[in-house]
């Protein structure tokens, strides 16, 4: 029996099959350095981008800014839901403090162009996926999270302004637990062959 090619990480297929998302709460040091984050973002720039618009950008939240972000999320949530309880607030605030590195990806659409916004959104999603692939390629684990803060305008305004949106919070580090495989769709339910309709 030949050796399973997916055990050989020098194979591109093996690399792709080995990527897993990590839970931010399970991420510990080491995380990527500033230089490594710059390299991760540089690699992710190799993203399909019709019109060369780069309708996305990344903001790194330093350790010295985590508490400020937690307070911003806290204040925004109380403004929307004044009756919120302590546990709700603590859960949301914790999003600012997880993992060794935190990146906020901003979808920054360009409206003065013939490129449809839908294509720009697709490009932003591809950019985030490339960030995750670059993170994995450098030996770290990444997790892409949205949740309530990603859809709140006051939280968005901490990083930008309308019509921008938060595409997600990316947490990077080293997993403290073994990453497990999750169920994937069956290929037969995803891939099909096209048959042209009768003329």
- CATH class division of the domain at 22-62 and 98-176: Alpha Beta
Distance between the termini: 49 Å
Mean pLDDT: 93
The best one-word shape is globular
- CATH 4th-level superfamily of the domain at 22-62 and 98-176: NADH Oxidase
What is the helix fraction of residues, given as a range? 25-40%
Count of strand segments = 5
Rg is 19 Å
CATH topology descriptor of the domain at 22-62 and 98-176: NADH Oxidase
Q: Indicate the low-confidence ranges by residue numbers.
A: 1-7
Overview of this protein structure:
With 199 residues, this protein is of the alpha+beta class. It has a domain at 22-62 and 98-176: NADH Oxidase (3-Layer(aba) Sandwich). The chain is 36% helix and 16% strand. The protein contains seven helices and five strands. It has helices spanning 12-18, 34-44, 66-80, 86-94, 117-137, 153-156, 187-190, and strands at residues 27-28, 56-61, 101-107, 141-145, 165-175. Strands 1, 2, 3, 4 and 5 form a five-stranded antiparallel beta sheet that branches.
Summarize the structure.
It contains 7 helices and 5 strands. It is an alpha+beta fold and 199 residues long.
């Amino acid at each position: 029996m030949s050796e399973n090619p997916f055990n050989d990480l020098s194979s591109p297929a093996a690399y792709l099959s080995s990527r897993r998302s990590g839970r931010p709460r399970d991420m510990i040091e080491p995380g990527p350095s500033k230089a490594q984050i710059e390299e991760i973002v540089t690699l992710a720039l190799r993203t399909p981008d019709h019109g060369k618009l780069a309708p996305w950008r990344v903001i790194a939240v330093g350790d010295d800014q985590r508490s400020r972000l937690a307070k911003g999320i806290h204040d925004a949530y109380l403004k929307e839901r004044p009756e919120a309880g302590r546990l709700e607030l603590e859960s949301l605030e914790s999003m600012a403090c997880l993992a060794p590195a935190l990146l906020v990806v901003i979808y920054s659409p360009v409206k003065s162009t013939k490129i449809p916004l839908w294509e720009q959104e697709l490009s932003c999603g591809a950019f985030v996926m490339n960030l995750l692939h670059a993170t994995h390629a450098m030996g770290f684990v990444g997790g892409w999270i949205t949740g309530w803060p990603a859809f709140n305008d006051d939280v968005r305004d901490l990083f930008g302004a309308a019509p921008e949106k938060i595409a997600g919070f990316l947490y990077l580090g080293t997993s403290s637990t073994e990453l497990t495989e999750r169920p994937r769709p069956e290929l037969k339910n995803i891939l099909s062959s096209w048959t042209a309709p009768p003329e």
